[in-house]
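Intended use. Records like the one below are meant for learning the mapping from a protein sequence to its folded structure. Do not use them to infer anything beyond what is encoded.
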Amino acid sequence: MNHLVRLLLCLAVTSAGALETKVVKDVPYKDDVVSLTPYEQERCKLDLTLPLGAKDFPTYVWFYGGGLKNGGKDLSSEYCAEIRASLARAGVAVVTPDYRLSPKVKYPAYVDDAAAAFAWTVKHIAEHGGDPRKVFIGGHSAGGYLALLVGMDPERLKPHGLTLAHVAGIAQVSGQVFNHYTVRDERGQARYGITSDEAAPAFHIRKSLPPILTIYAQNDMLSRAEENMFFVTTLKAAGHTENYSLRVDDRDHGTVGHNLRHDDDPARLAILNFIAKQSAAR
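Structure written out for the chain above:
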């Protein structure tokens, strides 16, 4: 285990214990409803899971996986409700957006949706008791890919009047750091050919990025663990210092994300401690 992760895991999770939670469902996160397509009106909504009794709490914008082709915030297969409730009980609000999916849309539509959901959270979380300076972003698999692009490429947030300084940190789980294979499919490229352009988080690696926590599984999908290890190492080479990583043993690509719902899960604890550490620095 990385020595930085050992330090991270030793930090106390700053929460008020097991809090009760409240869910606010199906909030549209794009304001100009008149200009939206019917598909945007259907998909561009989010749920908030809030820690009751907490004030100025941090918020984690969490994107589910599904290869950019499947998934939904209410699908039990992604354990979304259990994951967000588990984190909210520890004092971290969770925003879970839906986003448009391929092949109904193509890149960058789903990335634009992710950026809009993050921007909505920064601008509106104070209305629900959260601190807009402490908005984090993350996700599992394709969701991790979306979180990385939004949190690393300043062009994604510019249309919303935000900068990467508004990203308190990125905590992603087994995300794709080169061009996502669905993006390559859409472009007629080889599904497993390695490409890296503006659609790849790796393309945007540099020293001056928000803090990043990268989590992956010992038995992750073929090449995904290595891809995440490359990402962590290249961040280090670029001089990015707030760079943390955790390989979770005895997990595969699915369980490393789905097991976040368990209180004693090491990935869950790493995320909570990362959020606590970076929130204290804000």
